[in-house]
Amino acid sequence: MKVLVAGGTGAIGRPLLTAMAAQGHQAYAIIRNPAHRSMVTELGAIPVVADVVDRDGLLRAVDGLAIDAVMHQATALRSAKRKLRPDDPTTVLRKQGTEHLLAAARVVGARRFVTQSLITGYGYRDHGTTVLTEDAPFGVHVGSVADLVVDGSVATEQQVFEAEGIEGIALRYGMFYGPNAFSDMFAGLLRKRAPIRPAGRCGTTCFVHVDDAATAAVVALTKGNPGTAYNIVDDQPASWQEFIDTVAAAHGTPRPISAPGWLIRMMVPYLGCLLIDTTMRVSHAKATRELGWSPLVPNLRIGLGLDSAVRS
Ligand SMILES: NC(=O)c1ccc[n+]([C@@H]2O[C@H](COP(=O)([O-])OP(=O)(O)OC[C@H]3O[C@@H](n4cnc5c(N)ncnc54)[C@H](OP(=O)(O)O)[C@@H]3O)[C@@H](O)[C@H]2O)c1
Asked: Least C-beta-crowded within 10 Å: which of 70, 201, 203, 218?
């Protein structure tokens, strides 16, 4: 397949381009920064210089290309503000960015569209021991600032499911760990001695290694059922205390500093919603059944090199 990829230079983007080339797909990687040409070319992709937020510029850049599918993996979490706002850059990429990439899909004649979504769309609350499947209500508001993130996930999913003539698939990812992923970002915060480890009540969530997240996206290109969402997580949910302690051990950072919930909320309100209020266990059985996908990295400790057993 010829695939137009947004987000190809990012944490999931790089293993994604590698996996696409390995599977014989030809990726066309949208790059904002021309200096990234060689990076994507070395990963087997053809660079397309454009900014997903600039609709007209994007359509001009893809004009004349003949493409089979579009892959939306563009996010901008690093530039998120301390206080989340409706015009948060990642939310804009999920709302307007998806609309622009759907318009690009029509220009290049693409019929398949795979988009990045998040498991937190099930709602930033305590789901207890219930194991959530894709049949659980999605787009659930709890009355916190985190509802803005939920709206972004719903927006990208609904647009690709409802787009005429497009076979849309959504991947509801757990939290990424691995090279350049959240585990690296948290390691950076721990080195700066940021007090981010919840002292008391703490949430539990699902994670996935970026390589497995990339593989799921490549499989979804050909095997994903149109109009379908898939949970993409590893086999072992973990508390954020476990995540932070595992990152600290794996990256050799100073011992994490614990902070009371009110302080974490005061520093970054969204972090309070994610690290404290949200407990969810999510099943990837549907992805295994329909895509034949299972995580090669079953849990954080193995994924970050603290334990050795990796399923072949
Ligand atoms: N499910 C998850 O847990 C999850 C989901 C997403 C991200 N993350 C993590 O969050 C951290 C920060 O991530 P990030 O969001 O900054 O992602 P990232 O890993 O840096 O990747 C973002 C990608 O989106 C591209 N992009 C952003 N805005 C764009 C635009 N307007 N036009 C075209 N391309 C655009 C970036 O291109 P440039 O190279 O031009 O910046 C980059 O390729 C990373 O550690 C990442 O793993 C986690």
From this structure: 201
